[in-house]
Amino acid sequence: MKTDTIAASATAMSNSGIGIIRISGDESIDIVDLIYRDKNNKKSLKNYKSNTIHYGFIYDEDELLDEVMVSVFKKPNSFTTEDTIEINCHGGSFVINRILKTVIGHGARLAEPGEFTKRAFLNGRIDLSRAEAVMDIISSQNEAALKNAAKQMKGSIYNEIIRYRKKIIHEIAFIESALDDPEHIDMEGYTDRLNIEVDFLIENIRKLLSTFENGKIIKEGIRTVIVGKPNAGKSSLLNRLVGEERAIVTDIAGTTRDIIEEDIRLNGINLRLIDTAGIRSTDDIIEKMGVEKAKRYLREADLIVYVVDSSISLDENDMEIINMIGDKKCIVLFNKSDLNAEISQEEICKVMKERSVSPLFIKTSMKENMGIEDFEEAVKKLFFYGKIDCDNEIIITNLRHKEILSDVLMNLSDVKKSLDNGLPEDFYSIDLMSAYGNLGKMIGEEVEEDLVNEIFSKFCMGK
Amino acid sequence: MKIIKGTDVCVIGAGHSGCEAALACARLGLKTVIFTVSIDSIALMPCNPNIGGSSKGHLVRELDAIGGEMGKNIDKTFIQSKMLNISKGPAVHSLRAQADKQKYSHSMRKVLENQKNIIIKQAEVCELIWKKIDNSDFGYIKKITGVKTFTGIIYECKAVVLCTGTYLKARCLCGESITYTGPNGLQAANYLTDSLLSMEIEINRFKTGTPARMDKRSIDFSKMEEQFGDEKVVPFSFSTDPDSVQIDQVSCYLTYTNENTHEIIRKNLDRSPIYAGVIEGTGPRYCPSIEDKVVKFPDKERHQVFIEPEGLYTNEMYVGGMSSSLPEDVQLSMYRTVPGLENCEIVRNAYAIEYDCINPKQLYPTLGFKKIEGLYSGGQINGSSGYEEAAAQGLIAGINAAQFILGKESLIIDRSEGYIGVLIDDLVTKDNYEPYRMMTSRAEYRLLLRQDNADLRLREKGYRVGLISKEQYDEVVKKKKLIEDEINRLKNVKIGASKKNQSFLEKYGSTSLKTGSNLAELLCRPELNYDILQELDPDRTELPSQVIEQVEIEIKYEGYIERQLRQVKQFKKMENKKIPPDIDYDDVPSLRIEARQKLKSFHPVSVGQASRISGVSPADISVLLIYLEQLHHRQSYIDGGYK
């Protein structure tokens, strides 16, 4: 029987020296093959024997994530008896999370708590001498996990999820009552009502999901990528913010050929600053690679700082950059504002149309050390609506919660799809039920019985 | 004392459950005696005059697919038929037929009388005869050896199926008056409960009710909405010739209660035995009396009332939706507030009935008692309500009693295979405090469990058991093949973006093609169907309408069906992890106390079943899984905790 492939961090998400990511299931080797390269960029993990360990690198597409050791266990010679890969990477939640995300992005699913052990049992294998010990560990883990989740959940997220579940179960109960008692309960006009409810839920869950980014930002800092044409003043900005000569600054365009990363703290917010090579069409191979890399960083940025030399007019390189910025949060720095301005806000706005968040514009002069405070204010404004105090906001930090909420969002979109296609209620009620069940997973509650109870308590059913 | 030997199975009760149980046993070649307190009450319908309805229709079709009788019998005796929920998805379409009650009963009696191996016996069974035998799992267990009637005759047998319906220690209540009878004034069975108690069987007390019957001549139908049957009737049974059920049908009528009705009820609540505290039994929430509806839903201005004929033989009309245990004088004034019933004459008054039933958690999913060899039970005695629920259980209990005697494998239908599976699993797995009614919402895999594919799902099981003939089974195999071939064909007939094809799509308001497509893809579009696509598919061969129906459903709802199949796959994994019957839950460390108690009292047969017991959490289940794995290493237990 084919099983889906699961992945999770086998070590704590803390700043330990080493982290281990375990992947188990029929496709585990194929998945890791997609992101693993050995020294010579050649051999596939498939060709390695079971129970062997290999030195290499993990890539997300072309971006190097970490230097790793990869262990290969072929079925049935693994803990779960399935094909299993263990990636030994460097510790720290950031690296582990990135690799885990990449693995999931290539087809694995995030494992439920205890799922590896569960599989080991379901597949009829557990080392006899270890069984007893494992049992204690698991039950205590569950309890701890439960307590932990409960603690986090007892607060605002818990109440929020309960609220959504109540709404969903109310709709399911209505639909089910109508199905079971068609002569007593009228469904006319119901789909319009449901559409409104589902829209409400989708909007709220999207909002909740978007806080994951904020939550991540609080934990890991804002990934801020500085872009601009060569010699616009990107490296100068970095140096001003970092407060030391980190990037080499010269008058020669194209000086920064690789990526420079720095962590800084700005009014209590962590910024992970990434200085990129200036973007222009070039024949220089090394510079070209830097540009390619910059493009990749842009895709993953939380914030893009677009540095423009305001003393020269926009050209096609600027157009390309603006194109690459897409819909990301963006601050446009009109640098060299001590010189005569050749371009205006309007000009840039014209090119950057159809954005959900309008960019902020700031005049700076790195040379004169002008406009840095305005920049700091702009960052705050973009990320925390001017408030750094996040205590009152409901924030999701847990990847599992994020995954569940994404599933719920998909379930609800399926409901919308069915409604749009005019499918009858017994179809979309299945996806409503999945949404309800998934939300229940998040707070560890049972699903089935409360439905029947709700039907009886809320709706009149006759014979 | 007279002892009668040579019987294999004794079936106690000849209602909808007992009839199916007895027929199954006899058809599987076993000498069967069926006991009833009154020969005239075989397959009696003491409440509503119809078979089927939402989700209950599914049960009847499934029962028919396995080899039961109910579907065939209603096809012979219905007077109106309707496919419910037709505006909704195929999974919730459900057949309901009004029965001629007398004809239904007579027809079933004839089937029993003509069935080889069945003896019908009018007698009250008072006692079960049993002995202790050694058992490797429990030390000892009880073993059924016979039954004893009120007149003192002992029938020796190998198995007993209890189908006592609402007769055990029954009493009927109507206002202040109480009669100690079964339904319709029939004799109650007052002794058997004590025998069950002496065998340490746990007994519950449930309550249900029925509305009044009225004289048709006293009803003004012009004030009501007439409800017709379907123009083209679909038979319940897969064996019934569809042409044979296209008959002249009679109508039902719809009217409503109003504020005056509710006012009378509210004023007289103190005279209702339920609200006055006279009734001890727990009544069903989903089939509430009119007083319950008025009290629980004070905002509702009116409730529906269905006036349905009891049959062609009589003027009596059933007043659906207004069951009551109020005194007769209150009933009359209450009914007379309803439009059309202003001058009504009550033939039989409404009443509530209280009866003993067993706690079904004492049963395996085979409907055999745990720790009592040879004892099975089906129907309302298991805490269910409804004719169809009863019949479905009777069939399964009868089959498994027979399989037990024949030394063959039990028939268990799981939740992913049929509503019958959901029904039985719910009964034996969940705490049940009221009569259980089947509902589509209880079936989590209902997109797969449609009434239209009951034969495809369950014919094979009936064939393996021996209730379905080779010819009937071959028919289903052939049908499956035709469906599969046609789906494949449709997926492979390419449809190009030609002018002709585009104008065809335009004609049916369907978006034009950008690239080539195939017939299956076009069939997915809501505005197109198999019939319409004929124009693009001139080479198709003519197929039976039942095959086309399946092809259309499977293609149109493919995504949904696949989602459900994935869920079923997960479900089956846990279902296949069996728990040995002699497990000692005190020996399982880390179980929470509540879970431990629940597991002890339910004794689930699989981890899947355990996970559905309320009060057993996911964490408890992992603990249990780990324990079982250890056990597995210590003593390799047999897969399948029961026989």
Question: What would you note in describing this structure?
Answer:
The complex is a heterodimer of chains A (463) and B (643). Chain A contains 14 helices and 13 strands. With 463 residues, chain A is an alpha/beta fold. Chain A folds into three domains: 106 residues, Gyrase A, domain 2; 141 residues, tRNA modification GTPase MnmE domain 2 (Four Helix Bundle (Hemerythrin (Met), subunit A)); 165 residues, P-loop containing nucleotide triphosphate hydrolases (Rossmann fold, 3-Layer(aba) Sandwich), CATH 3.40.50.300. Chain A has a seven-stranded mixed β-sheet. In chain A, helix 5 packs antiparallel against helix 13 and helix 5 crosses helix 14. Chain A is globular and about 80 Å long. Chain A starts with 5 loop residues before the first strand and ends in a 5-residue tail after the last helix. The C terminus of chain A is likely disordered. Chain B is α+β, with helices and mostly antiparallel strands and 643 residues long. Chain B folds into four domains: 303 residues, FAD/NAD(P)-binding domain (3-Layer(bba) Sandwich); 142 residues, Elongation Factor Tu (Ef-tu), domain 3; 81 residues, tRNA uridine 5-carboxymethylaminomethyl modification enzyme MnmG/GidA (Arc Repressor Mutant, subunit A); 62 residues, GidA associated domain, C-terminal subdomain (DNA polymerase, domain 1), CATH 1.10.150.570. Chain B is built from 19 helices and 25 strands. A six-stranded antiparallel β-sheet of chain B has the order 16-17-18-19-15-20, with no helix packed on it. In chain B, strands 1, 8, 9, 10 and 22 form a five-stranded mixed β-sheet that branches. A five-stranded parallel β-sheet of chain B has the order 7-3-2-11-23, with helices on one face. In chain B, strand 8 and strand 9 form a beta hairpin. The longest helix of chain B is centred in the C-terminal third of the chain and has 23 residues. The radius of gyration of chain B is 26 Å and the shape is globular. At the A-B interface, helix 3, helix 4, helix 5, helix 13 and helix 14 of A face helix 16 and helix 19 of B.
